[in-house]
Amino acid sequence: MFMSMPTARFPSQPAEHVSRELAEILAIYERLYPARHLNFYLYEGDNPVWCEPTIIEGEFVPGPEHLSPEYLGHLACPGKDDAAPPVTIMLSVPRAPDPREASQTEPDWKPVRLLRMIYFLNPLIYEQIRHMAEMMRKWRRDRGRDMVALARGHGTPLMTGPGPQANGRPAILIGMHWLELGGAENLAFDCIGWALEAGLRVFVIAAVPSLQRLAGRLPQDADIRFIRLDRYLPHHLWPRFVERLVQGENIRLVHIHHCAPLYRALPYLRARAPWVRVIDSTHIVEYADGGYPRISGTWSNFIDTHHVISNDLIRFYQDRFHAAGKLALGRMLDRSQLAQPLVPMTMRAGKKSLHFAFVGRFYYQKRPIVLIAILRALMRWARRGGVELRATVMGEGPFRAAMCRLLRRYGLAERVEIRSARMPVFELLEEADILLLPSSNEGLALVCYEAVRHGCIPISTRVGAQDELLPEGLLLPLSPFATVRAAVRLVDRLWRDGDFLARQVAELNAAWTRLGDDPTAREVLMPVYLSAASTGQERRRA
Hints:
By secondary structure, the protein is an alpha/beta fold. The chain folds into three domains: 2-95, no CATH class; 166-331 and 520-541, Rossmann fold; 339-517, Glycogen Phosphorylase B (Rossmann fold). The chain has 19 helices and 18 strands. The chain has helices spanning 15-32, 99-103, 116-121, 123-144, 183-198, 229-232, 238-249, 260-264, 266-272, 291-298, 311-321, 335-338, 368-385, 400-409, 425-431, 446-453, 480-496, 498-516, 521-541, and strands at 2-4, 38-44, 54-57, 71-77, 87-93, 171-176, 201-206, 224-226, 251-257, 277-282, 305-308, 327-329, 353-359, 388-394, 416-419, 434-437, 457-461, 475-476. The chain has a seven-stranded parallel beta sheet with strand order 8-7-6-9-10-11-12, sandwiched between helices. The protein has a six-stranded parallel beta sheet with strand order 15-14-13-16-17-18, with helices on both faces. It has a five-stranded mixed beta sheet with strand order 1-4-2-5-3, covered by helices on one side. α5 packs parallel to α19 (521-541) and α10 (291-298) crosses α11 (311-321). The two termini are 39 Å apart.
């Protein structure tokens, strides 16, 4: 390996940062092109999450524009095959994030320019317009998009390859959307732990360039490796890299958690490594295009098992893709927690003080602007009824600044506390009386499970599979103005009518028991992981 550095300029990033980035870059491209001569042209980047790579297969002669002021140097890595054409990789070394980016990489949310005046006059009217646009997208999706699984031929045994050749312990590849806060990510982290427990080595990749702030949650174990394809490799090269990783590391199982480029790698993988088993897990049907369940269903003939978290998703796959034979329901519940008694509900009729909670990311899906409108209306209700009301909002995201401005505008800043998403959720839920979840869409929100466990009554919009846990009396209409009005009426009834409150609590407890009769995600996935681990071991013994 040879590296030439310019003498007139040195990188502003610390040397250890650049060295760490280079090590990951080399590991990816040397696996992708194991026999080729690699020529890296490295630049100082101004992006903390993405290296903006350009890959040229064949001879390349740099021009003056390739030695721009950001140029760091040229790194040459000789290949094993002298006759193989070289590969040139030009990329910018991502810089270290600044303190603000470390907490939030996305820019602060701003209303759409054409509707900005409406937002400043009345944020809820703005939300109503946005809701109507979203419902129009859903209508167009239902009318205009055919949801058909791609056809796949399974080939003939006469042309089947020799099977896996790697001699290492069996492994699993887990593809994630990103390593940030989210329900799908929570399940993926659980799966990583279960795979290690089953005896598999674990490789993790993520689709979306991000700081991957939850990477620290990955177990500190020699059998787990996080490969930063999100940072260094364009999506169109993922199929080739994934196939080489599968062949070289004895990967017997691929598990997809909302990882779009890994779905697109499946044809190449099925052609080159047909013995690999593929499963995926999905959570929520998006309004615009169906989201990941639609992507998953499209690739259904390339997937062995669809793990879903709700009956709502089972119906979606059956109705749209006729995939009944490969569906597996596994609830995002812990069997040991199901065996424990539920914490008694904190809410009591006629209480003189009420504590409301919200837990979730500050993104549009959770409708934080509607949440502030609900809290404003509830504060008015509380003043009329002589109730002391406070709220705690836990989360992070691009809507945070807008939420803080609205709280100050409405005079609620002293009554509403915003907490970091890194604080324990269960402590808040055990303090609070009612959890508010005015989302535009959900799968079956994990925080609602947690609320019931910890004695907090969840109130949610009627979206996704929320009605599989929440009774009819605790569900709100979706339209923003109706959501706010119905939330105040519901809280008023829970506060005034002890019998109604008792019925809702009884129905929540009954739903919790009913869901506990279904298999958990671990009970569905762990046998698959154990089978992959034992298959690899049996081959080695043979």
